[in-house]
Amino acid sequence: MPWLSLVRRGDWLVAFIGAMLCALSFALAWQSGVAEKAIVRRGGEIFAELELSRDRQIEVAGPLGITTIAVSKGRVRVVSDPGQHQYCVRQGWLERAGEIAICAPNQVSVQIAGRKEPYDSLSY
Amino acid sequence: MTRSVIRLITTPEDHRIARLAAAAIGLALIDAAIPLPLPGVKPGLSNIVTLIVLARFGWGTAAWVSGLRVIAGGILLGHLLSPGFFMSLTGAVVSLFVLAGAIHLPRRWFGPISWSVLAAFAHIAGQLLLARLWLIPHDGLFLLVPVFAVAALVFGIINGLIAARLLADPSFINTGTPHV
């Protein structure tokens, strides 16, 4: 008995919708590709690039002392900083592409780099 | 010394369920023995039995066979009450819910292949949800969705074809029916 005769018309429809779902899932899941990164800068130079998919903590030595930066669950934050105002620490978790925390006194910044950055420069 | 005999009253329906469940459990063991690269991707051969039971004896019997297969399979494979067992249970329960709706589709157009594909997608959807909520609470899990979706489609069609073929085979008509 030929196998094809077992397939009814609606079965073709269901299989086709299934195939569409598969194609859609590929498009949705894999469009963003590689994991996002956080870029740590010290004095304007790139100090480290941290994969947001891997939890870790690093220490950056600046002119004032050590700034601690931690990655957890796809987010990044400044844990501690020797600066006076603690602006970058109080900014909390950064999770979207383009977000940045700048610890100006210690010349350390951390920024989330996405595939598409909303802008690459600002001018006045 | 008195001998006490505990006699369970079983109906022909019970015998039928037991026999079919045994067939499903056997296939589940074969399923587990097939090496595949990714955990969670399995052919789901025992669902062929579920589909045949569904077509021939209705949803209630299919639910019994499926449930017994999950529990007895869990005991035999040694993962009873482990995360793998709950994944299996969730998949079976969600599939049965979808099948309850799918059997009401007009038979002229929708056969076991449709049921199989629908149930396979329901199966992975349920399992992914459980995995996301409980086992791996991270959105990175959804990167695996395409792999599971393709597996569901392919194995759903294959299992459905096998079930449809067996149901259409005249020499198969009498197996699985009660002769107690």
Say which CATH homologous superfamily of the largest domain in chain A is assigned. N-utilization substance G protein NusG, insert domain
CATH architecture of chain B: Orthogonal Bundle
Tell me the series of helices and strands of chain A, N- to C-terminal.
Answer: HEEEEEHEE
Shape of chain A: rod-shaped
The biggest beta sheet of chain A reads: 4 strands, antiparallel
Write the layout of secondary structure elements.
The complex is a heterodimer of chains A (124) and B (180).
Chain A: H1 9-29, E1 37-42, E2 45-51, E3 56-61, E4 66-72, E5 75-80, H2 87-90, E6 100-103, E7 108-113
Antiparallel strand pairs in A: 1-2, 1-7, 3-4, 4-5, 6-7
Chain B: H1 12-33, H2 46-57, H3 59-77, H4 83-102, H5 112-135, H6 145-168
How does this structure look, described?
The complex is a heterodimer of chains A (124) and B (180). Chain A has 2 helices and 7 strands; from the N terminus they run αβββββαββ. With 124 residues, chain A is of the alpha+beta class. Chain A folds into 2 domains: 1-31; 37-113, N-utilization substance G protein NusG, insert domain (mini-chromosome maintenance (MCM) complex, domain 2, Sandwich), CATH 2.60.320.10. The termini of chain A are far apart. Chain B has 180 residues and is mostly helical. Chain B has a single domain, classed as Orthogonal Bundle (Arp2/3 complex 21 kDa subunit ARPC3). Chain B has 6 helices and no strands. The radius of gyration of chain B is 17 Å and the shape is globular. Classes of the chains: A alpha+beta (124), B mainly alpha (180).
